[in-house]
Write a structure and sequence with these properties.
This is Methyltransferase domain-containing protein. GO terms for molecular function: methyltransferase activity. It comes from Micromonospora haikouensis. Pfam families: Methyltransf_25. Keywords: Methyltransferase, Transferase. Helix 6 links the parallel strand 6 and strand 7. The N terminus is likely disordered. The strands form two sheets. A seven-stranded mixed sheet has the order 5-4-3-6-7-9-8, with helices on both faces. The protein has a two-stranded antiparallel sheet with strand order 1-2. The chain has one domain: Vaccinia Virus protein VP39 (Rossmann fold). 37% of the residues are buried. It is built from ten helices and nine strands. The protein is an alpha/beta fold. The structure holds S-adenosylmethionine. S-adenosylmethionine (SAM) binds next to loops.
């Protein structure tokens, strides 16, 4: 039975939302090799830095909330918030997670997202999202993220950060994912969800949000990100995880 689950009155069936999130996980797994090991690294690093589980967690560009859900289930006493610009993905997160995770609308390219999210977070994550922003906004993002964090809190940025290491040998050890096939899977996922009648108003909102945004595809080496983090006032910043062109940087506030 369809259940009203969204503040805007949109009706979404929970089981359908769960299925769309499962296929989203499959698509993301085609883009990011060894996603599970990335997530395990970020969780273990957070526990090691704090000596205990985090109390407040924020996942930015969290999409339909898969990482947010896994963090909420690992750290059962933590208050986990996800923020995203996309109303369709937020509806999936809200429908499937039902209060387990707080899901907020917010645009990382406009600094007021910090006021919406609030402060005092022990952990802020942003996975495969910063490449949607141009370089100056990514630089500004590090300032904004630091304002969200409690002293000693951890920022974890995972994205394409190519060109460091020994490319030929790293490529042999970790064959690059088939990005063309991943793009096809991404397009098919959006094509499929685009046919859901109950999501039509949110799909229209989404189209309006993204039509004025040029595809950015920003990538910079991890050292660029580490410098931006230090310039924004983070103490330590460096790579904690790498697989081919994908890397994750941790920065301590
Ligand atoms: C490739 S998806 C990754 C989603 C999620 N982190 C994951 O790993 O499943 C990129 C996400 O960034 C979000 N996004 C793009 N531009 C954004 C912006 N300006 N502000 C907030 N979120 C944004 C998209 O809506 C999408 O959910």
């Amino acid at each position: 039975m369809a259940t009203p689950t969204h503040a805007s009155g949109i009706v979404l069936d929970r089981h359908q939302a769960v299925r769309w999130r499962e296929s989203w996980a499959h698509v993301m797994g085609r883009f990011v090799p060894h996603l599970a090991s990335l997530e395990e690294t970020l969780c273990r690093a957070t526990e090691a830095v704090r000596g205990r589980a985090p109390g407040r967690v924020l996942d930015l560009g969290g999409g339909p909330g898969l990482l947010a859900e896994r963090m909420a289930r690992r750290w059962t006493d933590a208050a986990v918030t996800l923020m995203d610009i996309d109303p369709v993905l937020l509806a999936l997160a809200r429908s499937a997670l039902r209060g387990e995770v707080r899901a907020l609308e917010g645009d990382l390219s406009v600094p007021d997202w910090v006021d919406r999210a609030g402060g005092g977070y022990d952990l802020v994550t942003v996975v495969m999202t910063l490449h949607y922003l141009p370089a100056p906004q990514v630089r500004a993002f590090y300032d904004d993220a630091r304002r969200c964090l409690a002293a000693g809190g951890l920022l974890f940025v995972a994205d394409l950060m190519p060109d460091e290491g020994l490319p030929s040998l790293m490529g042999a050890l970790n064959p690059a994912p088939d990005e063309a096939a991943a793009e096809v899977a991404w397009a098919q996922w959006w094509n499929g969800i685009g046919k859901m009648d109950s999501l039509r108003p949110l799909l229209a909102q989404r189209a309006a949000i993204f039509e004025s945004r040029l595809p950015i595809g920003f990538t910079a080496p991890a050292s660029w990100h580490a410098t931006a983090a230090r310039e924004a006032g983070f103490g330590e910043a460096g790579v904690l995880w790498r697989c081919g062109r994908h890397a994750a940087l941790a920065a301590v506030a």
